[in-house]
Amino acid sequence: MNFFGSKFGKGKSKKDGTAKPLWLSQPFVEATLVNGSLRKVVALPRYVDINEWLAVNTFDFFNYVNLFYGAIAEFCTPRDCSVMNAGPSTEYTWTDGQRRTVKIPAPQYVDYVMTWIQNVLNDETVFPTKSGSEFPPNFLISIRGIFKQLFRIFAHIYHVHYDKILHVSAEGHLNTLFAHFICFAREFDLLDKKELTPLIDFVVELEQSQRI
User: Fold this and answer.
1) How much of the chain, in percent, has pLDDT values that exceed 90?
2) In a domain, 183, yes or no
3) The CATH number of the domain where 63 resides is what?
4) How far apart (Å, rounded) are the C-alpha atoms in residues 190 and 182?
5) Which residues contribute to the annotated binding site?
6) Does some domain include residue 4?
7) Does the keyword Protein biosynthesis apply (predicted)?
8) Per the structure, how many domains does the chain have?
9) Given 57, 137, 168, 187, which residue has the most CB atoms within 10 angstroms?
10) With a threshold of 0.85, does the pTM exceed it?
11) What are the Cα distances from residue 145, in Å, to 53, 56, 82, 150?
């Protein structure tokens, strides 16, 4: 059932006969706030420490993803989103304190993720803020872990809640943030290719339009 009615119906069918998702359909797939490539935006500025650059951008991406999820959170309920997924073929599981893999509702998964990331960002041993403090040797591993989880939230929003994004006319903002996120992740090798699978068609569209 389409929550907002026929205005945001399914897109045209793909070659295999399946309906194209809204975020791959015109005009939404081209909605953006920035024309051209974002590669210059994500490049490490001269004289800036790479870990500082990673830290600042990770903090910003976390806050922006949190804002977008907050905009659709009232529709992401344990009843409607009983598992954390990115479409029918991708389900995400959580690893609990006993190292057990469990399926939990999407809102609970996102809450766990955001709480975990916030704790990491507040940890001075990982994200030092005091003058003279150094980043830990495994800092990049921490960043990659954060990016993996943020991507999953993007994927859930696109696959399950994109109609709500359209309802508030925020598709250009979300698409631009996602393109920025993917471009940055590619620049610094922060995401495994297999993680991109749920949104790989959109990533290809961003490549072909030379936005990343």
Assistant:
1) 76
2) yes
3) 1.20.140.30
4) 9
5) 76, 81, 156, 161
6) no
7) no
8) 1
9) 57
10) yes
11) 17, 16, 24, 9
Q: Are 83 and 159 in contact (CB under 8 A)?
A: no
Kindly report, residue by residue over 42-83, the tens digit of the pLDDT: 999 999 999 999 999 999 999 999 999 999 999 999 999 999
Q: Three-class SS string for the chain? A: CCCCHHHHCCCCECCCCCECCHHHCCCHHHCCCCCCCCHHHHCCCCCCCHHHHHHHHHHHHHHHHHHHHHHHHHHCCCCCCCCEECCCCCEECEECCCCCEECCCHHHHHHHHHHHHHHHHHCCCCCCCCCCCCCCCCHHHHHHHHHHHHHHHHHHHHHHHHHHHHHCCCHHHHHHHHHHHHHHHHHCCCCCHHHHHHHHHHHHHHHHCCCC
Which residue positions form the known binding site for Zn(2+)?
76, 81, 156, 161
Structural domain including 163 reads 59-207
Closest CA to 198 of 119, 89, 106, 93: 89
Say if residue 17 is exposed, middle or buried (CB neighbours under 10 Å; 0-12, 13-18, 19+): exposed
Alpha carbon distance 209, 212 (integer Å):
8
Which residue, among 108, 97, 110, has the nearest Cα to 154 in the 3D structure? 110
The answer as to whether 41 is a domain residue is no
